[in-house]
Structure formats: C-alpha cells, structure tokens
Amino acid sequence: MGGEWRDSVSNRWFDVVNPATEEIIAQVPNAVADDMLSAINIADSVQQEWANTLASDRARILQKAASMMHTQVEELARIMTIEEGKPLAESRGEIAYAASFLEWFAEEGKRVYGDVIPSSSATKRIMVLKRPVGITAAITPWNFPAAMITRKLGPALAAGCTMIIKPSELTPLSALEIARIFEKAGLPKGVLSVVVGTDAPALGAALMDDFRVRKISFTGSTEVGKILMRQAADTMKRVSFELGGHAPLIVFNDADLDVAVQNAVLCKMRGMGETCVSANRIYVQREIAKPFVDKLVNRISQMKMGNGIEEGITVGPLIEPAAVEKVERHVKDAQKHGASVLLGGSPSTNSKGYFYPPTVITDVNEEMLVMQEETFGPVAAIAEFESEEEVIARANNSRYGLAAYFFTRDVGRVLRLAEQLEYGIIGANDGLPSTAQAPFGGVKESGLGREGSKYGIEEYLDIKYVSIGL
Predict the structure, then answer these.
(1) Residue 343 pairs with which residues in a beta bridge?
(2) From residue 82, how far is each of 179, 236, 306 by CA, in Å?
(3) Is 74 a catalytic residue?
(4) Catalytic-role residue among 276, 374, 388, 451
(5) Measured between alpha carbons, how far is 178 from 94 in angstroms, rounded to an integer?
(6) Could you read off the pLDDT tens digit of each residue along the chain, which spans 470 residues?
(7) Which GO terms describe its biological process (predicted)?
(8) By the 8 A CB rule, do 274 and 143 touch?
(9) Among 242, 274, 388, 445, which one carries the catalytic annotation?
(10) Mapped to the 3 state alphabet, what secondary structure does the chain carry?
(11) Are 13 and 37 in contact (CB under 8 A)?
C-alpha cells in the first residue's frame, strides 16, 4: 500500500499451504477492515493525478510489467505451482496469458476515443468524453492467481483508475509478486495496493461500504456475487462479475472424434477441472458414444498425477480438502443413481496432498449432482443424446451461462448452436477459446460485464456528455 510493504494493524499472520504436500510455504500479514480503509485512503489521494497521466505513459508501465513477467516466468510459475498446485507447464502458460492482458490493454488505453455529435442548434456543440470511473477494486480467486488479476488490473490502469486487489487467501503469493513487478516497472506509489486477509466478508464490506470505491470486479461463486451485488446497490457502484459455470460440451456424430477427444481432455482436465469454464457435462450423440468414451478413457488414463513442481506431471492436487470432499460427493451420488465409473472414482491414498485422480463416469442423467452443480474437479461425466434439438434444450437447462462447447463438421449446425446456446462464450470445435483480445463473460447467473477485448476497458470508463454553448 502506498508503495510500502507493511504488516497488518492486526499484527496477525496466516499460513499459505502447498496443496500437494500440505507444507506451510509462507506466512502473510492477515489484513482487517482498517487495513482496507488505509488502502482506499491512499488510492483516493492519488486517483486524480493518475487519471490525468498520459495514456502513453500508462501504456509504457503496463508493457514494462508484461516484459518483466515474461523474463521472470520460471520464478513466477514456480511460486504459482507451490501455492495453487497446477503443474509447472500450466503455470508457465498462465504467466504468459496473464502478461498478454497487460500487453493488450497497454494498447487499448491509447485508443479510448470520445465523440463529437452533430447538434440540433447552431449555437451549441455536443461533445462526449470518456473518463476513468475512479477507484476500483478486484476480488480474485485462487484458481488463476495471476491471470484473474491482470485481466482486471490491465484495463483499470490503462483507463486511469487506481486499483485495490483482494486476492484469495489460498493463493496470495502470486498477487504480491505482481505488485512487486509493478513497483519495479515504475507504477506510482498508491496506484496499486494488494490487501490479503482471511476475513473476506469484512474486507469486502470495507470496499462495498465506501462510496469512493466506484467499481468492483469480482471473479468467484454466484452466491458471493449476489451478496456483492446487493451491497453495491447502497453506493451504486459499477460491478462486473464472472461467476459460476456449468459448461456443457457436446459431441455430434459427424465430429472429428480425435479432435473432440483431445479438446475434451484439455477443457475438462486443465487445472484439475478447477476452472469456471471447465466442461462439466459432456453430451455425446449415441451413435459415437462408445468410440468417444474409449478414446477419452485411453487419453485420460495416461495422465500423470502428482506434485506439479515435478516435470512430466499433468494433474496436480485440488486446492483444499473441501474440494476433494465435493468431488467425492458428486461421484458417489452419480454411482448411487446408476452411473458407471470407468476410470478413477475415489480419492488418492497418498499420505500427503489433496489429490483426486482423473475420473470418467458414464450413464449420467440430469438427476445427478454432476449435472446440476459445478463439480470443480477432474471428473468427466458423460451422457448420451439423440437429436440436436434435445441436446440444446438439455444444455440450456441451467441457471448458469458462462461457457459451452460443441464439436461438429456441419457448418449450418455451427451457426445454429452458436445462436441458440444460452452462454456468453462458445467454443465451436475449440475447447480453449480464452484469449486477451476476446470478450470473456457469461449470461444468466454466470455474471455481468465482459473482461478482455476492446469491451473490457469500457467497464472502467464513464461517459461524460458536454454541451457547449457558443
């Protein structure tokens, strides 16, 4: 805060635990509401000055920070793996992905244009300006501890907003390293603060209750998003929420089976299935169900589970014991209702770490928890379907609407499903559609607003209309 590394006023600390070994890897100051208030006061003191800097100057800082992330990729990836669990290869990929948002918004910030609108009076002129909304805050999750920060921080800084980041207490180290990078990149003191603590409701309330904080960006559960939305109403804050998902992945009988299987594995097992866009429900047309399942089981059975810090590991631990318990509950419920477990199906017997092996279950139906709730784990749940109309209806039968995927070689079907699936992100023959230049976000109870792309910076700008009398 304010360019200083400081302890919490609580004088308390909390442990950061490696989910693969259950070892304490760091201790971090445990912030309280008074710490968050200090961060807001600091941001308030520098907001106007930062808003008035040249877009090109802000861009240079963002580009320098991105370059430093690329240079330090091994160090940053290692930190991410030991605090979050994902394999090193995935952590390296996330660092590159995180840096791409800084690079993208460094350029977008230089292209925030206003308008001159034809007037209805000869003695007036109409001008439209875009100005930063003011102090912003980001509440970020543990599953992408770097990219979920830069996807919010990049547009905020590019637009001229200060930002306070409240990262997950499970993965605070990546956030603190990003702050260190921006410090070295020359970001003025006070423009960025990182406040970490275990009392998320108290820290969140400090942000939501303060009128000076004009915008909140949150990635997390739908339940918490609804709480924040209610709190935001009292001060009419702008909000953007990327919330829970329950993604369907549909494979039609005319699909390239190898492409579909490869993408299904990537989409389902990336990050141990602990991603909001992970395929949670896999629908396969009946004629090709058996060959698809056989290929899928063969591919997944070759994945190597273990401590992500070791090279060659493709499946790491889940984030905490509660995550393992949820996956186990979903699999047991599916078995109780008639599902067959073809691979995995029970927690690892390793003495240390929060591991659950990649699992494939078939004969799945809508009564099962895996078809009603986000599993957030490495479980591929497969159901069969007959017709296009049937599977569209089943896929849309959810209060969530973040991501959906389908595989087909029928061009007409591509267009029909792109229009009819009620999701904000559609992967047509693509299981990994996320990229910095594309708008990321959901519909229904999966969120509000978009991150990334040219649309992402608009979330941090106010439109100001100026009528000029001549």
Answers:
(1) 360
(2) 19, 39, 12
(3) no
(4) 276
(5) 13
(6) 999 999 999 999 999 999 999 999 999 999 999 999 999 999 999 999 999 999 999 999 999 999 999 999 999 999 999 999 999 999 999 999 999 999 999 999 999 999 999 999 999 999 999 999 999 999 999 999 999 999 999 999 999 999 999 999 999 999 999 999 999 999 999 999 999 999 999 999 999 999 999 999 999 999 999 999 999 999 999 999 999 999 999 999 999 999 999 999 999 999 999 999 999 999 999 999 999 999 999 999 999 999 999 989 999 999 999 999 999 999 999 999 999 999 999 998 777 999 999 999 999 999 999 999 999 999 999 999 999 999 999 999 999 999 999 999 999 999 999 999 999 999 999 999 999 999 999 999 999 999 999 999 999 999 999 999 99
(7) gamma-aminobutyric acid catabolic process
(8) yes
(9) 242
(10) CCCCCCCCCCCCEEEEECCCCCCEEEEEECCCHHHHHHHHHHHHHHHHHHHCCCHHHHHHHHHHHHHHHHHCHHHHHHHHHHHHCCCHHHHHHHHHHHHHHHHHHHHHHHHCCCEEECCCCCCEEEEEEEEECCEEEEECCCCCCCHHHHHHHHHHHHHCCCEEEECCCCCHHHHHHHHHHHHHCCCCCCCEEECCCCCHHHHHHHHHHCCCEEEEEEECCHHHHHHHHHHHHCCCCEEEEECCCCEEEEECCCCCHHHHHHHHHHHHHHHHHCCCCCEEEEEEEHHHHHHHHHHHHHHHHCCCECCCCCCCCCECCCCCHHHHHHHHHHHHHHHHCCCEEEECCCCCCCCCCCCCCCEEEECCCCCCHHHHCCCCCCEEEEEEECCHHHHHHHHHCCCEECEEEEECCCHHHHHHHHHHCCCCEEEECCCCCCCCCCCECCEECCEECCECHHHHHHHHEEEEEEEEEC
(11) no
User: Six-digit token pair at 94?
Assistant: 């996330």
Domains, in order of start, for the chain: 13-243+446-469 (3.40.605.10), 247-435 (3.40.309.10)
What Cα–Cα distance (Å) separates residue 284 from each residue in 16, 393, 407?
Answer: 41, 14, 10
161 annotated active-site: no
CA–CA separation, 410 and 413 (whole Å): 5
Parallel, antiparallel, or unpaired for β 24-29 and 13-17?
Answer: antiparallel
Instruction: Please tell me the pTM assigned to this model.
Output: 0.96
Tokens read off for 201: 């409701």
Say what angle helices 73-84 and 55-71 make with each other, to 10 degrees: 70
